[in-house]
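Continuing from yesterday's entry. The apo prediction looked reasonable, so today I'm repeating it with nicotinamide-adenine-dinucleotide included to see how the binding region is handled. Same sequence as before; SMILES copied from the compound registry.
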Amino acid sequence: MTVHPPKNINIVPFVSVDNMMKLVLSIGIETFLSELAGFIEEDFRRWELFDKTPRVASHSAEGVIELMPTSDGEIYGFKYVNGHPKNTRTGLQTVTGIGMLSNVENGYPVLLSEMTILTALRTAATSALAAKYLAPEGADCMAIIGNGAQAEFQAMAFKSLLNVTRLRLYDIDPAATDKCARNLEGQGFDISRCTSAEAAVEGAHIITTVTADKQYATILTDNMVGSGIHINAVGGDCPGKTELHPDILLRSDIFVEYPPQTRIEGEIQQLSKDHPVTELWRVISGELAGRRDAGQTTLFDSVGFATEDFSALRYIRSKLPGTVYFDQLDMLADPDDPRDLFGMLRRAKDVA
Ligand SMILES: NC(=O)c1ccc[n+]([C@@H]2O[C@H](COP(=O)([O-])OP(=O)(O)OC[C@H]3O[C@@H](n4cnc5c(N)ncnc54)[C@H](O)[C@@H]3O)[C@@H](O)[C@H]2O)c1
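Holo prediction written out below.
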């Protein structure tokens, strides 16, 4: 008996930038971030199921291009992403991305999506999710150092998941801070624009560093970080690209996504290879403690891991049915007779 594959298996749903924006706005940014954080949390809870590997990075003098694959055994996913800190000087984004999900059983892609906006959302959702377990109780004031493309997403995720409503913004470029403050107007924040990183961290319970510079930068020095603070270090995510002075790391409890990748790319690249760190999934699954007391300095050394992109694509896929926020992409050559690929090509002449 001939087994027929599902109809239209050659057609892959594609979420363009335009449709991603419409989808996010139709759901509502805060709802989207909290639902997305739920998917990321769920996948951290089934961490051991996933195929894991540090991302495959191709470095150049100006930046990095990376592939981030993973699979839960049923669905395979990967993201293509770049990081080019000098891009904004020529009007380009520092980070852009696209991603795909496939069916493990037959290898056929089932979703293709823009991931520039989705990366900003998933990075912010992951940061806020980590902070849910690590930030001091009642934290409602956050410093954001680096007010570029990712900054507002971080603010919105922390509001959505932790009810952070007071923001202290700083960027070496005041125009970036102006842009950030303007974009967050009317979103329920009390916003202070600060003229230095030192001023920004004053009174903050959470410090987010989200700068872009391809060097060992020192955005925070040890004396700037009081005890009990939670640091969400997002911008140090490449070999030779960090944001924190090593002394801060030495007195913080450090939480990471996937140690083999973070030891190459994160703040902890500045420490010995065996410096103790806690895997975030073990905290989320309840195996290990997150924040234990009010005096502890906690650090989420975020670099971005493939499972978070997988979760984000899985979330998007779950939201598409019944909406108009995707295109049908004729992406896979799928002849009726699977061995007649050449025949399909020849016959195309008759319809051309
Ligand atoms: N951890 C993750 O999962 C993850 C995900 C996405 C992006 N990132 C990283 O986050 C960083 C920010 O990304 P983006 O898209 O917002 O970049 P961006 O270029 O749009 O913004 C970066 C901002 O940092 C500011 N800046 C640079 N040096 C500074 C300093 N010393 N003090 C204060 N501000 C400074 C710049 O003026 C700019 O406004 C990048 O390094 C990127 O690689 C990490």
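Comparison notes:
- The mean pLDDT is 96.
- The CA atoms of residues 141 and 204 lie 5 Å apart.
Will overlay with the apo model tomorrow.
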